[in-house]
Amino acid sequence: MYNKFFGFKEKPFKLVPNPVYFYLSKSHEEAMAHLNYAISQGDGFVEITGEVGTGKTTLCRTFLESLNGSVEAAYIFNPKMGPKQLLRTIIEEFGIQTRSDNTKDLIDMLNAFLIKKKSSGKKVILLIDEAQNLNRNVLEQLRLLSNLETNRDKLLQIILVGQPELSEMLNSHALRQVGQRITLSYQLSPLTFNECKEYIQYRINIAAQKSAIKFDRAAYRHIFKYSKGIPRLINIVCDRSLLTAFVMNQFKISAQIAKASVNELANRGQTKNYGIATGKWALIGISFLSIVFLVAAFFQPIRETITARLAGQDNSQTHVPSQTVADKVETKDAAPSAEISDPVEKIKAPPVKNNVSAVSLAEYLKLMDGRSSRQAALMQAMKLWKTRAQFTPFLKDIDDDQTYFRLSAKPNGMFIHRLETDMAFIKKLNLPAILEFYPPGSSSPGYLTLTRLDGDMIKLTGESNTEWIVTDLEELEFYWSGVAYLPWKNFHSIWGTIPTQSYKDSVITLKFLLQDIGFQNVAIDEKYDEFTQNAVESIQAKYGIPVDGYVGPLTKIILYREKKSFQMPQLYESR
């Protein structure tokens, strides 16, 4: 619809795994390096995992296209089949002709094929996409195929690519024989903010003949916040933004256009669901856009008015969020003004208490130093937990923020759990959190500690003890990346993840804890039985986290929260 208007030879954000559009982020580059290394070393089993939409299938196809004539490859992208059907599919992918349906005959034929390729100096690989759909019997069949070998080398290399559930399967006790054979594994990460911008421009450059389309920096932020760096979601929102810009006769994706597209997708449940809209909703959306297009086409004055207004908004340097709570307090009785005041001005509200004053979030972020904010945020969180903070100097040189928080908190008797979430869940937990922000003009994040919730007012603390950063939900969500680090204490020393990787005494301790919070019928023994699992799942359901019965860090946090006697800081006074 909009290709000719923007000068594209094809749509740049189509949801197909086209290797031509493969953007080599740092994570994807490392995954490719792992695959190439595995091929060179002849490793038996390789595992690549990544969340839905992170580009696993595109990675697979790009990797297969990069192979030279010395490698023979079979690619299976729909592994929902039984062991014998999988074996037949593998043989067909390698071009082996057979009418036999006997498992032994099929294995013998595959073995003969592999030996022939080995003698000719070729390597043979089997790449299985969506491998989280493999059942236990099929995985056992793959284990047996991995036994095909000479005295020195494996005849078949098996690469499993799938969602994170694949790792959980391979780490299970039942599949330990398969899991132990994984010699190399890697997990794909979402794109960073800078990579998100480069990804968008890269796809446009590939599709463009002579495109003049531009994205505002604030538009990039809306897209990144919505997508959380997931390429598939970036494609969805960018495609919608281009369509909106086309209808409005715009050659620039402004913050307003990107935000409108994000809101439309979010209202359809796209944030919760990585899939494409259903046919019903797609039809409604197309109908709506068609009406807008007709209005724009036949009512030129209206279109010119809209264009002029958007052009005026695009000339501003940043998106102007709604007033913060502190701004509203300050201007409550003021007369209306012809101009909107800059929200990053120093708030002139009276001191909040004693010598503590309030500043706006936007103002604070302009002056924030990302690296030093890590220690300051963690220190503020330690104070709330009434824990004396001691920091090892050499840790400040650690680049990875999650590693920094984890290693810095541990000597102080604290743990850090990273999660991608929203304010509704943090409010439900009612625990302080270290929030990740991207200050304007910065490509690296900074951190502030969420200290207090007071109605619509959100209070954060930074490096200074003499001021609070005061904001509201709309402004917070504009700057917050959605990443939070939860400091917590393991009060009862429940170690590992129950039931997969834990000690027997941890199971007993868990059961005592469940009794304390109301599950009186839990039997105190070392068995993680069905009743105990159901109790855990009911707590998980209450807090809206994945109901899987596994007791990991987040489940431990909410279990400790449920026991009211623990001294845990709160964001607000709970009833």
Write the layout of secondary structure elements.
Layout: H1 3-6, H2 26-41, E1 45-49, H3 56-66, E2 71-76, H4 83-93, H5 103-119, E3 123-128, H6 136-145, E4 157-162, H7 165-170, H8 176-179, E5 182-187, H9 193-207, E6 214-215, H10 217-227, H11 231-247, E7 252-253, H12 255-267, H13 279-298, H14 300-314, H15 325-331, E8 357-360, H16 361-366, H17 370-384, H18 401-409, E9 415-420, H19 423-429, E10 433-437, E11 446-454, E12 457-461, E13 467-471, H20 473-479, E14 480-488, H21 504-516, H22 530-543, H23 553-562
Parallel strand pairs: 1-4, 1-5, 2-3, 3-4, 6-7, 8-13
Antiparallel strand pairs: 9-14, 10-11, 10-14, 11-12, 12-13
Supply database-style keywords.
alpha/beta; single chain; Rossmann fold; Helicase, Ruva Protein, domain 3; 23 helices; 4 domains; seven-stranded mixed β-sheet; Cathepsin B, Chain A; 14 strands; five-stranded parallel β-sheet; 575 residues
Summed up:
The chain is of the alpha/beta class. The chain is built from 23 helices and 14 strands.
User: What strand order characterises the main sheet?
Assistant: 8-13-12-11-10-14-9
What sort of overall outline do the alpha carbons produce when their principal axes are compared?
globular
The first-level CATH class name of the largest domain:
Alpha Beta
> By CATH's scheme, which homologous superfamily of the largest domain applies?
P-loop containing nucleotide triphosphate hydrolases
Count of the domains:
4
Return the CATH topology of the largest domain: Rossmann fold
Give the class from helix and strand content and strand pairing. Answer: alpha/beta
How many β-strand runs? 14
Can you tell me the CATH architecture of the largest domain? 3-Layer(aba) Sandwich
Taking all Cα atoms into account, the compactness measure Rg is: 28 Å
Low-confidence stretches: 270-284, 290-353
Helix content class: 40-55%
The end-to-end distance, rounded to whole angstroms, is 55 Å
Task: Give me the number of helical elements.
Answer: 23
Q: What proportion of the residues form beta strands (DSSP E)?
A: 5-15%
Mean pLDDT metric: 81
The major sheet is characterized as: 7 strands, mixed
What is the chains' assembly state? single chain
